[in-house]
Amino acid sequence: MTLQLFNTLSGKIEPLAPSDGSTLRMYACGPTVYDFGHIGNFRTFIHVDVLRRTLKLVGVNVRHVMNITDVDDKIIRGAAAAHQPLNVFTHKFEAAFLEDMEALGVERPEVLPRATEHIPEMVALIERLRAKDIAYQAEDGSWYFRIERFPEYGKLSKKDFEGIEDGIRVDVSGDKDAARDFALWKAVKTGLDGTREPAWETVLGPGRPGWHIECSAMATRFLGETFDLHAGGEDLAFPHHENEIAQSEAASGHLFARHWMHVRFLLVEGKKMAKSEGNFFTLRDLLLKGYRASAIRFLLMSVPYRHQLNFTWDGLTESTNAVDRLRTFAARMNGSFPEGPPHPALAAATAKASADYTAALLNDLNTAEARAAIFDLVRAANSIADAGTLRAENARQIQDCLTRFDAVFAVLDDRDAEITRAALEWAQREGRMDQAAPALVATLSLSDQAIDQLVSERTQAKKTRNFARADAIRNELQEKGILIEDSKDGVRWKRK
After folding, report:
1. What is the mean pLDDT of residues 62-91?
2. Domain that holds residue 428
């Protein structure tokens, strides 16, 4: 089974497989650690996670590299404003990013290199370009890439660069030979107050790397001059990825990445996410509002990566309910059922759901169709279970199907209370408890053990016909956001 994935470079859906027949080597652009990650960032990281999990599901080994950009203009400004050394400033946000990724169920890449730890590789790459007269030094000491020496420039973004003028995120300098040329190495600057920005002493002169050279150097350091796939958000296709291709291929003479994957933006309630719109949310913002990490993950992957997602509060509520339904169903299938020949129609429906689920993921990571296949199975199995004709072998087959489902979607394991409690503890340390929903604080004031004890007490009260006490316990739990569900399989509870 081979994954078919859209390739931005060719503009076609193409097979994605390891070029060496063993391990698929992939690079994904990581965070710039100057602030907390927002939900737009995490949509990209979650879909890259879907990619790597799908590959592993069908037996493909993966070597995934994701960089940590810990030096750039925003970081330097932020560290200066915080009166902190660069590494102290970035460590806080790097740690928070990794915590947020874990909360969202995103698997950690095999390699997580920091830009500041690979300056020598960046300098060596620029030196190779200088030797070919493709890199040149401007009067201020900065080094630039001479785009006219790379005729294929624009092959990824498909832009027409005839007569291009300086624009967004294009380095502007009067010292450059041409407006299109981009920075490889930025000469050290000294502020009006005499403060010198962070810099490294190298053969190129004192300075720091440009944004694009960081990814090229780290990707080739850990994956080789040519590797299988490069991924990132659609906003990175130009100029970042275009510049990576230019400098990498100009230096090596070889193709940089065979396959390119780009994840579309998300909107929030139909608008572009922006602080000025008041619709800019970090993961921690949403957790403190009382939303669950699992529901956020499920919503962010609900729409396939090549389609824009409109993030809405109704959609988040719907995702919360969907995750609850899946977990309730999984718990039911783990119950006790009679042995005997499996229900034939359900056995066929389970096999079909499993096949349709896998086929959807292999068809350009169609997460929407993959979800639909599983929910079709949920409806069919619940109906047969309600009729009392579901057998133990049916349940085992369904459990196998759910295991394959969760290998990619990763929402069945309920860690939500633990994650939200950690967010509250962070808010308390940071003096942000005013941002936490009061109902959330009340819900988490009870530990799981305390809830279990109250539920047991309620069950005993019902057995002794002390219905007043049983109702009082239910009401007490409900006031604190704990819902009690009585079923023939026993009593279950869940936090709102």
Report:
1. 95
2. 416-495
